[in-house]
Amino acid sequence: MGWSKLTFFSKALITLGVAGAIGAGVYYLSPGLRTDASKQLEKLEVTDKDVNNVTTSEELPLPSADASTEAASKPLVKLAGYAWNGQSGIIVANGGPKTTKGSLMEQNGVNLEIIRQDWLSELRNSHMKFVDEFDKGNANPKDGVAGIIIMGDGVPFYISSVQQSLDDKYGKGKYNMQVVGAVGLSYGEDKLIGPPSWKLNPQSMKGALVSTVIGDGDWVTAVNYAFANNIKVNPDPATYDAEALNFLASANDDYIEASKELIKSQKEGWTIPLKEVKDGKLTGKTINKKVDGCATWTPGDKMVFDALSGFTDIASTREFNNQMATTIIVLKEWADKNKATVSNILKASYIASNQVKQYEGWKRKAAENVAKTFNMEDADYWYNMFKGQKGEKNGISYNMGGTRVFNLADANQYYGITDGTNRYKAVYDQVSKYLKDLNPAGFNQNVKRIVPYEEAVNLSFLKAVENIDAGKADVSDYTKKATQQVASGEWQINFDVGRATLRPEGKDVLDQIYNLLIQAEDAKLELFGHTDNSGTQEGNYGLSRARAEAVKNFFIQKGIPATRFQKLEGKGQDEPVADNATPAGKSKNRRVAINLLKS
Question: CA-to-CA distance for 64 and 105, rounded, in angstroms?
Fold first, then answer.
């Protein structure tokens, strides 16, 4: 297999040390040795304010298709990113892949080139080439790219792994990658695709194999759904656990390949040989497993629904609506020397995005520019997918696309600058926990340190954006009754015996659940308290309700509105999930169930 065919993880393993790969090979080929067990983790957060602001402003002239001679006199800045509609705002601000005459980038003194690159490994390589030239004293390198545009929930993986390579090559801390802001938001476009049974009965997903770019945002969507429904996740893509959700690392770390692999497996019977694992131990058996689903985004979702019957979207960024912002990552040391340029890129994008939100002409121009930049499909395709599309095949309905762009009010709200609820920090911290606890493909052995949010995100460039009417923050409407269940999970939240007082370890679990609630900000909540069979049956009804109330009060104190709680009930000892005859069983029965619902 050639280097270009290796996944991002494989390249990271080779780059960071052959010894680790040899050790992995030993345990992989030897039955009975310990391997990473499938994990049941605490769930994610969802918040209460929907990020979708509109600031009333006059309609501006559209950018032309002609190259800007004025911008050509400025240093060229290159950004590379996946093909997805989340970049619509920044692309139309530029007039297409290169800055055009009359564009907002030109008006803000920026000469920008936006490059399509669907391979995560190549995004990383382009970033590293830029650093190499910058290290040689070139203030504005032509090789590589100054920044990349990816999903915000994929940033902890990307920044931490790239930072490891930078530290190894140049010395610790000499160069650093940082997030400087977000310019859009996936709102349904990124999704887990599988048979309808996964939505009707999430537990039926146990033993499934899902193809995706491991560590990236679509992987996070699938992990979120699994954890929100108490399904274990197998962190090792080389093994198969029948009691967990399993992942296949898509070829070339390409989301399109994830879709193709599902189609190939379902149509041609293509299988993947995986080492069977039970309770964290290899059995010595090999399972030839078909691909059962994929986690991908537009146009990958349309490819699947066009090619296959019997599949639908199981969970998406419409449910986890704050999970996946269109995030720009740049080399900090370059950005510090080009502060005005970085802020002006954001400024032009936010002005253009606000035009897209208000005016049909700007929506159409954005779709036209996106099609040209990605050299994929036509303007009508991207226009329709931006809004989101519904389809049906053989009686099974599905959703495709769905995207938002950020104006300045959105960005300030998303990062908590205006209302104090930092939605992105909740996402970043939760995904960091996934990487630490799941250790996908030996991540923690090869990346010494997950870069914390405080080091990874630099909001100074966003805060420097001026002379735009930022508008007012939008607030989610919780007055309508929610009827559709997004997910249902039960958490073992520790209380003092016979009391409704949260123990410190119980608060740790709730902190993780809060992060999930922030990501699924539009969802309403139901809380159900449970007890073991200690005490009287009547007393346990009151105790279980008091415990559910304690959980509700914890969330309210952290800023979750009381109006999000649609139902609260104490079930007492009536619905045990384990044998009350043992201490371990009693412990499992002392729990709180949380349902996420949408209208």
Answer: 12
- Reported as a single tens digit per residue, the pLDDT across 478-503 is 666 766 766 666 667 777 778 888 87
The SS3 of residue 192 is strand
H or E stretch covering 277: strand 271-278
Instruction: Say whether 162 sits in a helix, a strand or coil.
Output: helix
Strands in 456-556 per DSSP E: 484-491, 524-529
Are 362 and 92 within 8 A, CB to CB?
Answer: yes
Poorest-pLDDT segment among 149-158, 170-179, 512-521: 512-521
Report the residue count for the chain. 599
End-to-end Cα distance, the chain:
49
Edge-to-edge strands of the sheet including 524-529?
484-491, 592-598, 524-529, 565-570
Q: Which tokens belong to 205?
A: 């997903």
d(Cα 323, Cα 46) in Å, to the nearest integer?
Answer: 9
- 379, 298, 363, 306: which is closest to 84 by C-alpha? 298
Band (132; pLDDT cuts 50, 70, 90)? very high
What digits encode the pLDDT tens for the residues 73-99?
A: 999 999 999 999 999 999 999 999 999
pLDDT digits (tens, 9 = 90+) for 549-597: 988 888 888 878 888 888 899 999 999 989 999 988 888 888 888 887 7
Domains of the chain: 3-45+190-316 (no CATH), 69-189+322-463 (3.40.190.10), 484-598 (3.30.1330.60)
Alpha-carbon span 185 to 406, nearest angstrom: 7
> What is the number of other CB atoms lying within 10 angstroms of the CB of residue 513?
25
Determine which helix (DSSP H) or strand (DSSP E) holds 76, and give its type and residue range.
strand 76-81
pLDDT category at 21 given cuts 50, 70, 90 is: very low
Q: Which strand (E) or helix (H) includes residue 44?
A: none
What's the token pair of residue 413? 């709200």
What is d(CA 566, CA 556) in angstroms, rounded to the nearest whole number? 14
Nearest-CA neighbor of 140 among 74, 51, 76, 207? 76
Listed residue (237, 260, 210) closest to 9, CA to CA: 237
Angle at 248 between CA 195 and CA 158, to 5 degrees: 115
> How far apart are the C-alpha atoms of 352 and 183, rounded to whole Å?
10
Cα-based distances in Å from 508 to 304, 421, 428, 491, 512: 39, 19, 17, 12, 7
The C-alpha atoms of residue 165 and residue 170 are separated, in whole angstroms, by 8
The confidence band for 463, taking pLDDT boundaries of 50, 70 and 90, is: very high
